[in-house]
Structure formats: structure tokens, C-alpha cells
Amino acid sequence: MFRRKLSALEYHNSGVFDCKDEVEFRNLIVWLEDQKVRHYKIEERGNLRNVHNNEWPKHFEKYLTDVNCPFKAQERQENVDWLLGLAVRLEYSDNVDKYKNCTADSVRNDATKGTDPLINLDVNNPDFKAGVMALANLLQIQRHDDYLVMLKAIRILVQERLSPEAIAKANRSKEGLTVSLEKHFLGFDTGDATLNEAARVLRLLHIEELRDLQTKINEAIVAVQSIIADPKTDHRLGKVGR
């Protein structure tokens, strides 16, 4: 009963979504808030995103109150239908120029083209799940309940770190620079010139490792934000993003 609205919102699991499945239900609520409704600021969505928390129903009930949903938390189908309707209205208000000249034929044509090849994947296929899990383990990517989210993370990693351009850049960076140890103050004296020089080398290597760690942290933050955050202009608040 939700397929048309889910498809209109380009939800990846629109064809087989089961409202009675607790995991699918919670993941949909999180997806709607992250991608379409965006009532909370990004930093305020933690409780709702923690779908494995025993307190999640309480946080969901508060969320329904905050978005002025007229139904009780126990009325699951009504809640899903109302939130989908809200998401569709917000999607339209954010993209009025895009949708105002749409016709039924153009919508059908766009749907058959499939702008994102991931949308047409059968995410419940055991072979698909096994393949994604194997790639995630190989690339050391954090496991997620939503296999499509993991696949998107894999795609981002491959594009940013394993493309020919990225590999060429990494190889160039390995060439390094000549460093004069005498210009770097050690801060203490071991009493032995050789030990002092070795200590300077270790300190420089440690600094390089810290910089590399910071770079990886920044890359991880960007990768996560590109999956879960989709800032758009919010005309109701008169500003961009939330």
C-alpha cells in the first residue's frame, strides 16, 4: 500500500518494504528523517538512528509529537502513510520547478531510465548480501544493517581511494621530501648525538602518522555525511541545510 509513495521518494526498498518488519520499519523512519523530512538537525538524530536501542520506541513517539503527527505510535501503518505524505510534500516544496511541468508519461519514462543503478538492485537477494559482505570485509568497511548503505560506502571508497587517479596520487606521495634533522628541535638531550638524531626521526614519523590518521578521520566523516546527510535549501527556515 506504500509502493507508490516510496517509489516517488526513490526509496531503495520500495518494492518489497514490509511495514510489519521491525527492522525495515525503523530503517525507513530513519531514512525519511535523514533524506526527506529533516525536521531535526543532523546532530539531533542520534537517538532515532540508533535502531537497535531498546529505548527506540520512546524516541520514535517523541519524534511523532515533534513533527505533529496525529496518530499514536502504535498505529504503525497510519504513521508510515502520514510520514510518507509529509515527505512527498516537502520533496515537492523543495523542487517546485522540477515537478510543476511533470506529466504522467514523463514520470513513467524517468522511472524506467533509473538514474541510480543501485535503486534497481534486489537487496533481499542472498547472493547480493553475500557479495556486499565479502567486499565490506575485504575493504574493512564497517558493517551496517542496510546492505545498500554498505554498497554505497564501498562505491565511495573505490571511487576515492582505488581509482587509477587516486592510486597514482598515492604513489607520488610516497616519494617523500628531504628533511634536515638539524632544523627540528628535539626538546631534550640524551647525551648521545646518534640517539638524539634517532629521536628526531621517531618524532617526525609520529607526527606524520598523526597527520595520516587525521586525514583518514576526515575522509570517514565525509563518506558518512555523503550517505546519511542530504542538506537542501529549507524554505521554511529561510536558510540552507539544517
Q: What this model shows, in words?
A:
The chain is 60% helix and 2% strand. It has helices at 3-8, 22-37, 46-49, 56-66, 76-94, 96-99, 104-113, 126-139, 147-161, 164-173, 193-228, and strands spanning 233-234, 239-240. The model is unreliable at 111-115 and 232-237 (pLDDT under 50).
SSE layout and pairing:
Layout: H1 3-8, H2 22-37, H3 46-49, H4 56-66, H5 76-94, H6 96-99, H7 104-113, H8 126-139, H9 147-161, H10 164-173, H11 193-228, E1 233-234, E2 239-240
Antiparallel strand pairs: 1-2
Strand content: under 5%
* Bulk shape: elongated
Low-pLDDT runs: 111-115, 232-237
Number of strands: 2
Order of helices and strands: HHHHHHHHHHHEE
Query: Major sheet, described briefly?
Result: 2 strands, antiparallel
Q: What class, by secondary structure content?
A: mainly alpha
The separation of the N and C termini measures: 31 Å
Helicity, in percent?
55-70%
Q: Using only CA atoms, what is the Rg?
A: 24 Å
For the largest beta sheet, what order do the strands appear in spatially? 1-2
Number of helices: 11
Mean pLDDT: 76
